[in-house]
Design brief:
It is built from 13 helices and no strands. It is an all-alpha fold.
């Protein structure tokens, strides 16, 4: 029994180290780029969005709003106070919906993490997240018009942690916070990937999530994205292994959308500003969009 356990530990350790060597560089690059954007470009990005307020673009403003949401490095708890400030200064709520939706799904750090999945998966993630933000803004415009969609009462901009007068120290402190916030999830993702590689037969997995079972596979991927997604960086090792094992790109796309959009911290923040009725509509929108995206992706890719 002890010999079997030791052998399994050796196998898992081997798979863990192989996966770690393959993906660690992407994680490090993502953290470095994310911290650079957060320290040196965050104010400029939010300033660009603030200046949109005076543009008479109508509903077309959801396009730049969605793109700027992706460029923003803040998590949802950081985005909501900023959005509250924009709202108080007269920003349209359909534009805010586009900005916040795409910000939930993607950020510069996660973009660089996702390069580990290959150019096709990266392109699918970028395009689908941008369109999801635009779709959210468009639906708010159609269904609510000029009626306020969000309730930002009680939200005030949070004090920035990046206050050190030395720019190098500001960057290093931000990078340290990034490492502490994502490091454990990243290593857990690598471990889960090693366990998956050791114990889950690739052919069985391909049968469930591959193109031969694309409708059910996309639905399953969208569903498991809800409980499994805790940190973007932590899911990249798993997704990389799943794609190697035969997961269709559509199933991966559905997982990436529902996972990010229903991460527990994001849901807690959104529940506060949406209220129960609009919160339920948000969940329904995310699930519907992820399913449609997954099916369309399998048709195209």
């Amino acid at each position: 029994m002890i010999d079997i356990l030791q052998r399994e530990i050796v196998y898992i350790s081997y798979y863990f180290m192989v996966q770690l060597r393959q993906i660690a560089a992407y994680w490090i690059l993502g953290m470095v780029v994310g911290s650079l954007v957060s320290v040196f470009a965050k104010d400029a990005i939010h300033g660009c969005f603030e200046r949109l307020r005076d543009k008479r673009w109508g509903v077309w403003g959801v396009i730049p709003a969605s793109l700027l949401g992706i460029a923003s490095p803040l998590c949802m708890y950081g985005t909501i106070p900023i959005a509250a400030s924009f709202s108080r200064h007269g920003m349209r709520h359909d534009w805010l919906a586009a900005f916040m939706m795409s910000s939930v799904l993607l950020n510069p750090q996660l973009i660089f993490y996702s390069t580990a999945l290959g150019p096709t998966a990266l392109a699918v993630r970028l395009i689908s997240c941008t369109i999801c933000g635009m779709a959210a803004g468009l639906l708010v415009h159609i269904c609510y018009g000029k009626e306020p969609f969000f309730d930002f009462n009680g939200f005030e901009p949070r004090a920035s942690h990046d206050t050190d007068p030395n720019p190098v120290l500001r960057f290093l402190k931000n990078l340290g916070r990034n490492v502490r916030a994502t490091g454990l999830y990243f290593l857990l993702g690598v471990l889960l990937s090693a366990l998956f590689q050791r114990y889950v037969p690739a052919d069985r997995f391909a049968e469930l999530f591959g193109k031969s079972n694309e409708g059910f596979g996309v639905l399953m991927a969208a569903t498991i994205g809800v409980p499994l997604y805790a940190c973007g960086g932590g899911t990249i090792p798993l997704l990389q292994q799943w794609l190697v094992s035969g997961m269709s790109m559509g199933s991966a796309a559905a997982f990436m959308i529902t996972g990010s959009a229903t991460k527990i911290t994001n849901l807690g923040a959104l529940k506060i500003v949406l209220g129960i009725k609009r919160f339920v509509l948000y969940i329904a929108f995310v699930m519907a969009f992820s399913l449609i995206t997954g099916l369309l992706t399998n048709l195209v890719v």
